[in-house]
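Can't paste images in this forum, so I'm doing it all in text. The chain is below; anyone willing to post the predicted structure tokens underneath?
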Amino acid sequence: MHRTSRGGGVVAAGAVALAALSLFATTPAVAQSPHETDFWQESFDHPTLDFVDPFNHNANLLGRVYSVVHEGDESFLHALHDEAGAHLPAMHYGKAFQTNPPPLDRVRALKWRWRVLRHPSVTTDPWEDVAASVYVIMKTPSMFRGGRGFKFGWLAKPGPDNQTQHGILELPLRHDPAGPEWHSESVDLCALYRAHFGACEGEHVLYVGVVTDADGTKSISEADYDDFELAALP
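Text version of the structure:
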């Protein structure tokens, strides 16, 4: 993803894009019944995918980057950003909780599987383009205020953590080489929120999504995502 600046001139393009998620901010959630163990699951194994594009890009343009792929009994989200072939913007794609967003203090963990098939060209800033990244938004940024949330990245090389992009904290989870192996992740969102932003009580998960991009380096990124789960506390 192209990054215009850090610090005072904070990445205005990214702020405008993520600010579109404010359309999905809602009133506090209704608590789940005690027998429910997950707020949300997505394994890409059903006909209709309940994902949105906060940028509202043309569907054909979005389809050039993201598609559901079936391999044997497996289904997963495939992402290919080929900036070397034609100009494509970095595009967010994910689940927006438009009603009853999960209360953050009731989320036990966010889990998913992913793999990187091709890293973008390496620059001095490994966050410039990321083959696989997962966004979680609790407060949407705007042109006038920062948001709150996380960007979990699988970087092409070791990179800095605890940097922010308009309030969204960048946390590198991996810098493994590209390959066919799947890797599983589990993150305690409430604990991370407390460590970096303050109390998680009263906050809600508004959006969980992915970005695979190569527009900044004019190269190619390719990755797969599967088995997202927002696990609830018992």
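The chain has three helices and twelve strands. Residues 2-19, 21-35 have pLDDT under 50 and may be disordered.
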